Queue: 4 jobs
Job 1
Amino acid sequence: MFQILHSYIPDPVFFEFGFLVVYWYGFLMTLALLVGVFVVGKLSDLYRIGGEHVYDLGFYIIVFGLLGARLYHVLNEPSYYLSNPSQIIAFWNGGLALHGGIIGGALAIYWYVRKHFKSGIKIFNFQFSIFNSMLLITDIIVPALALGQAIGRWGNYFNQELFGLPTNLPWGIPIELSNRVAGFESFTYFHPTFLYESLLNVLIFVILMFLHKSVIRNLRHATARSVHKGLTLRPGVITATYIILYSIVRIAMEFLRVDATPVILGIRLPIIVSSLLIIAGLWFLYRCNKPFKNLPTT
C-alpha cells in the first residue's frame, strides 16, 4: 500500500461516459453519505426508534450539513470566492469544512426533534425529554459521521489537496507541481494527512460503537434507580466523546497541514475552533455525570 501511495499520481476523475463526468470526490462523498445512513439506520433499530424518522431526519441533516460545510469553507476564503463567485456552489471540486457541516447538521436535528418529538423519545422503559432526545439523536449520528469522514477524506487524496508538510517517509505521497502550496514547490513528497485522519476516524468509529453497545445493554436492563444513580450513560456522552477525540485528531493534523486557512494571533483557525470544542466536550462530560431529574418510567 505504501509503495502505491508513494508512486501513484491520482486522477480526480473517477470515470467519464460521454458528457457525464464523475469525480472521485463526489463519488466518495456519496458513498460516505450512504454508509452513514446505513449505520444510523442500524443503530436506530437497536434503540427502537422508528425508521421513517431516521431517513427523514437524515435527508435534512445531509442538506443542512452540506450547506453549512460549504458556507463555512467559502467564508474561510472570502478573497478567492469574491473573485470567483461562480465557484461558490462548485463543492464537487472540493471545499467542505467539517466544522460548518456539524453546525448545519445540529440545526437540522434541533428543528426536526422540536417538530416531530414534542414529548421526547421513548427508549425501552424511559421517556426522554426534548433536550435529551436531541442528544440521543446526535449520539446515534456521530459514529456515522466518523466513518463517513474516514471515507470522504480519500476525496482529498484524489484532488491532491489538504496534504501535509514535505517528508522522506516511504508513505509520503507525490503532489504535482500545479497542486503544491506556495513555498513548497521544490518538494515532491508530502505527509498523507488524509490517510492519517482516515485511519484515526475509523478508530474513533470503533470506540463510539463500543460505547453504544454498552449504553444499549445498560438501558435494556436499567431501572429508574440505576439511571438516577448515574449507572447508565446519559445521552450526549457519546457525542461529547466524538467531539473531544476528533478535535484532538484535527489539531494534530493542523500542525502538519500546509493549506491556506485563516490565522489568528499566529494560530490556525481550525486549531482554535477544535480547542474550544475540546473544552466544550469536557464540560459536557462533566455535566453528564449529574443524575437525571424527573425521568419518568413506565
Job 2
Amino acid sequence: MLTIAQLAPLKDRDPYLYETLVKIVASVNATSQRAGVDPSTPSPAPSPIASVTVQAANGWFDISIADPSDSRPGLFYFAESDTTPAFSAPRVYFMGASRNLYVQLGNQTLFWRAYSQYIGSQPSAPITFGSPAIAVVGGGSSSGPVPLPSSGSGVFPNRVPRGANGFGVHPGSRIVRQALL
C-alpha cells in the first residue's frame, strides 16, 4: 500500500497538488489490490471450486474442475496427485485458466485434488476427487518411470515441499505461521 507521510501539510499550502497526490495514491492502491500485488495485505482466497472429476485409461488421466463461482479475471487452477489420500508429497499441475487437464502418467494409482488461486491471494481450500478421496487407476501395460520426489509449488519458507500452495502464500498468513511452529 502506497502512503505519503508528508501529504497532510500540503493540504493548506497547495490544495491542488494535495488533491492530485491523493488521487494518485488512491489509484495506485486500488490497482495493486486488484492485481493482487499489494504487499501489505494478501487478497482473500477465491471461493472453493465445486468439484473435481477424474477418469483414467491406458495411463491417461483426464481431470475436470467444476467452478460455477463468480470470479474476476486472473483466476488460475491447480490439480494435485499423490499416491496417498493424505497428500503428503503431492505433484502439482498448473492448469492456468483452463479447468481441464489431460496428462499421461502411466499405470499408477493416484488420488487427486484441485483448487484455485489469484496471483497475490491465498489459495482456495483444496477439494478432493471423492469424499473421502478415491483412488484412480491409470491402467494400461506400462507404468512409466518412478516419479521423482515432489518439490511442491509456490513460494514457501525454507522451501518445504507442500501442496495446496499454488503461487505461494502471503508471509503473514495463518498457513505459513503454522508451518513455522
Job 3
Amino acid sequence: MTIDFSLLGPAQRQGGFHLDDYWVWCGSVVRGEDGRYHLFASRWPRAFPFHPAWMTHSEVVRASAITPAGPYRFEEVVLPARGPEYWDGDSTHNPCVVRFGDQYLLFYTGSRCPLPLPAAGESFPLSDPRCAVARSNKRVGLATAPSVFGPWTRRDQPILPTRPGTFYSHLTSNPAPVVHEDGSVLLVFKGRPYAGRAHGRMQIGVARAPHWSGPYEVVTPTPIFGANPQETIEDVCAWPSADGYGLIAKDMTGSICGEKHAGIQAFSPNGLDWTICDPPQSWSRRIVWDDGTVQVMGSCERPFLLFEGNQLTHLFLAMADGPGGFQHATRTWNQSIPFRRPLD
C-alpha cells in the first residue's frame, strides 16, 4: 500500500496533545473499550533541556479525546520511573500501543542511569557521562494490560536485548510493531553498534516473534537500508498491507525525499527486503492549519498512522516550533492530521 499523502487535510490548531509544563513527544493512538481515543505519548519536565533529558526523565503517559483530532486531555502516567535497579527504571519513551483481542500491548523504549540524575536547571550537555550511560542502556520492552486503563504489567527484562558484534550491540530502541491476526509480530526497530567506546551510527533492523509474548529474534543480520552511514532514516511506523508491509520514517538529511526531517515511505513483500517508494516522500514539515495559515515546523517526527478497521484516517506527528533543531524549540506537542477521506 503506497499512501497518497497529498490527501492530508488541514490540521486542527486546537487539537492534538499539549502540556504547558512538559515537553511532549512521540505518540500512538488506540480506540479503547470506552469508544474514546487514547493517546500514549512521552513527556518530561520543561525544567530540563529537551535533549538529552528524555533519556533520563521521560515517562509514558496516557491522554484521551472523543475524536482522533483531539484535543487530548491528560489522564495518567502509565510507565513511571521505578529506579535504576530496573532496566527501564529511569526513562520510558517511544510508546507504540496495539489492541489485540482482550489485551493492550504497549511497546516502548526504556533506559536507566545508575548515576545521580541531573537536577532541574542543572547543565546537562550531550558530553555529560550520564548521557552516555543512559543512551547505552536503551532497550525495547513490552508492557501489557487487560484494559486501556490498566493495570499495566511491566517485565523485568527487555524483549530486545543487545548482541555483541551486531549493528545493535550498543542499544535497541524505537519499536514499530506489526501484530498479525495470529498473534505473531514483525518488529521494526532502531539499533546502534559500538564504535570503539562510543556509539556508532543508527541502523534499522527487523525482529520477529511467534507470539506477541515472545521470544523476539532479530532476523536481519544486516540493516534493512544498508549501513546507513549518514544516519539517513529514523522513527519508523510500520503496518501490514494486502501484498506485504509498508513503512514511513523520518528522512534525517533530506537525501531521499528532498526535504530534511520530512518523511519517506517504503514497501516490502516480506518485511525483510525493503524498497523506497516512488515518489519517496510521505509527510512534509510544511503544515496547513484549519485557520488557513501555513507553517514550516521546526520538527515533525515520530509518525504514527491511525487505521480504523482497514481504513487509514489520520497521521500523528510529534511537532516542535522554532527554526529546526531541538535546542531551538520552545514548545513541543503531538498533532493529529486527518486525511481528507479514509484510505483503503
Job 4
Amino acid sequence: MKSLFLGTAALALTATMGLADTVRLGTEGAYPPYNFLNDAGEVDGFERELGDELCKRAELTCEWVTNDWDSIIPNLLSGNYDAIIAGMSITDERKEVVNFTQGYTRPSPSAYAALSDDVDLEGGVIAAQASTIQSSHVASTGATLVEFPNPDETVAAVNAGEVDAVMADKDFLIPIVNETELQFVGEDVFLGDGIGMAFRQSDDELRNKFDAAIASMKEDGSLNALLDKWEIEGKF
C-alpha cells in the first residue's frame, strides 16, 4: 500500500467543496491492479470499479482525474479534485492533513523482489517508489534507498542492475514475478492500516457518503467479490 505524505499542510487552508454536482475522483493511473490506464487511455482496475460502484450507491455523479503520485495530496488540498482513491494507505502522518474513510482493504503485505535470492536486504541498495510506506520502511532498515517517481521505474532499476531489489505492494509485484525473471526474496512485511479514500478535512459530508457506501459493500459481500476479481489480498 502506498503511504507516507511528506509535508505541505499549508495547502489545506482554503480548498472546500460542499457537495458539488460532479465529484472528481483523483487517482494515479499507474499502479495495477489498483489503478491503471487501459489501451483506450481510460482509468481502469480495482479502484475504477470500486469508485464507480461507491458513486452509484452514494447517488453521486463522478468523474475521474489522474495525477502523479508525488503531488496527489497537495492537488487534493488545492481543489483539483474532491477525493483520492489511489491505493493510498491510511497512516497517522497523513491523518494530520487529510481525513480517510474506513479501509476498503485490510493491510496487505509488502514484499521484496530481486533477480537473485542472495540479496542483502538490510545492507544492499533497494528501490521503492518515492513517498510510500515501502520507501520509509527501507530507509529504516539501514539499506541504501533509491527512490523513483513511479513503480515501473523501480522494477526497471532492478532489471538494469542499478539496484539489488525492489520493495512494493505484493499485489503489484505478483504478476511481474510471474512473468519475468524477478523472484520474491525475504519475508513479507505488513505496513499501514489498510487502504482508504482521502478527503480534505473540510469535506466530512462527502466523506461520510462514501464511508457509508463502503460499509454497505462490506455488508453485502460485494467488496470481497471485487477484491477476489482483481486478486487483491486484504478481504474482510
